[in-house]
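Aim 2 progress update. The chain analyzed this quarter is reproduced below.
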Amino acid sequence: MKPRPFKSIATLTLCVIVAVVSLFSNLAAAQEDVAKFPSRPISFISPFPAGTSSDLACRLIVKEAERILGKPVVIMNRPGGSTTIGAAAVAAAKPDGYTIGYIAPSSLFVAPFLQKLPYHPLKDLQQIIQFGETIFGASVKSDTTFKDFKEVIAFARQNPQKVTYGSNGTNSILNLTFEKVAKDSGVQFFHIPYKGGVETTAALLGGQIEISTGDVSASLVRSGQLKPILLFTEKHLSEYPGVLILRDIGYEIPFPAIIAIMAPKGLPDGIAKSLEDAFAKAMKEPAFIEGMKKLNFPILYRSGRELTDYVVRNYEIYEKLVKEMARP
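Predicted structure tokens:
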């Protein structure tokens, strides 16, 4: 027997009403969550060991932001895996604004092309704000015979693999950049990998290498022990007058040394805006400005939208660079 038409219509109507009521209930709940955000503490993932300079930069801005947000922002250190462990922790979190973190350039622009990761930098992460950048570059001992990087290139051109340099590991962003500089300059350096910047600097001071690549140590420069001869920055810095930057030697690939905050993909617009506004205000606080100066980190603001465009652009650039320069 065929079902009576009016019963089918009534059933369909009831289903539509239930679906509409459910939809509006969910929307109302979501709007309420946004309006009340934050209603509890926020976890901030730092992919570095506690006390390192980048970790301290996180703590500087978090301290100011939590006062503005009105709730605690708790630093949770998740070091390891060339910062990919921390990035994975952020990407896997619920996109509700209660888990955010610092995502280092290596976990965005290098590691994804060298290994299988549990996250995709563009599909699983959402950019909130950039609040600074790291001054990376190549440094030598102050008593070296090299006056600047152009003299290094000239010497290396006549003496292949005689100039030794250290980095924080084979296929690190520093190693890939320096090898690309060498290739474009028609020279060959001899690379010695270390576990990190501290070990690389120690090797330079101890005479095991002639050049160290990494963050420029302002304290060692001020004390007269080291001097930078090449900065991996997009602009010349007043702190280091006369020091060449990558563009000066014809190297046009950017070096994305961002200090930024990201969240899991899918963050509600209202919550993303609340976080961006809070951290943008935190950047203007005197204690933050003074702290970043002491850490030798220039303050640089990019909005969430600007940072998204920057990350996408550099992701494409470094995909090509890693494929060209990475070693097995």
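The longest helix spans residues 5-36. The radius of gyration is 24 Å. These observations will guide the mutagenesis experiments scheduled for the next reporting period.
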